[in-house]
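Re: beginner question about structure tokens

> Can someone show what the tokenized structure looks like for a real chain? I only ever see the sequence side.

Sure, here's an example I had lying around. Input first:
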Amino acid sequence: MSRKKISEYRAKSLILNALGEPYRGVSIDLSHYKKSQLLTVLDDTKKYVVKVDQAIKKRNQQNLVSLNLGSTEVAQALLRFKTEGYTWAIVEDFYPHAQKKELFFALQREERGVILSFSEKGGVNVEEHPEDVKTLIIEGRGVKLGFGKNLDAVFRSLLSVFEKAHMTYLEINPLLVNERGAVVLDAAVEVDTAAQFFVEGAWTESDFREPKTVKYEAEKAVDGLAATSPSSLTLKVLNKDGSIFLLLSGGGASVVVADEFANLGYHEAIGNYGEYSGNPTEEETYLYAKQVLKLLIDSNAKSKKLVIAGGVANFTDVAKTFKGVIRAIEDDKEELIRQGVQVFVRRGGPNQQAGLAQMKHFLNDIGIQNKVNGSELSLATIVHDAVKGLTSDKLTNPA
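And the corresponding structure tokens:
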């Protein structure tokens, strides 16, 4: 069984049909979008919601949902999504409501059965209050739900479409339920692709969506660099306005460093993730480091730190790769110094001593506050030092 996310447009069509309600949303293929497509659909007297429809979580936080828009503003929002590289969106009627009325509802297929989850405190902050979520294992059609007459009727309809459409996951958040029926504001559905021939067109491959994100220029540049190199070169932007930027070598070490920052509560401060490993050349390391430094410099964070870390390499030449990193820092040293960037280094492997001495001398010489260590220092320790770096007396303060 392969689980695939389907579009919110198709998910809502299935859900609302099961609830006996019409779905009036419009699916927009942004790759062929023209403003004239909506002229016969939108009503100038109404307000609308426009959302990217590509199985992306936390769309509100990423500015991928626009609320309470007039028809002209709808066209502008769609054009923005298209310009940013998204390919699918939906336009729906705006439904004003009290936040305290928002419910959370989910069904998930597991080995022990179908798990129903429900909370009377729905909305974007539901994950912050797991204690408010009630769960129930569904063991047959005769199960007693016990959520109240209106809710039970809605939930039974949702259970029915969950089974008929061979869904593996269904989430509605927020869900509004009143005497007149249900209002589905946001929905996410996964289906069992092996059941495609049994759902009679309820959903097809054309409804599948991948949680694609728009690539930053730095990511594209590293992708191009990796395509021509036998080494491993990866880069992912996590927070363009982060305060901690990472130049990591080795897959295992990169995970340890990122996880340690997260464990200390600094996951939102991490600007990027990725690695350079597999003995890249000096030039490849230089070009890779240039992209990370550009992200760091462009960040709007007030204080910034560059962590150059890795495990003890088997065959990656530390001195050679550090020459590439030093060249990149040299190019941008004036801006790095102006922004008060601190550098933390922990690395081991072939030519370790030469590389570390080279890095230490260079950073001291140009006047960047730093701490440089070899494998005698643990990866976790360099993370802790970076976190407290602004006031650490262990840092070298060049004259």
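Each token stands for a local structural state, so reading them left to right follows the chain. The chain has three domains: 24-93, 98-203, 217-391.
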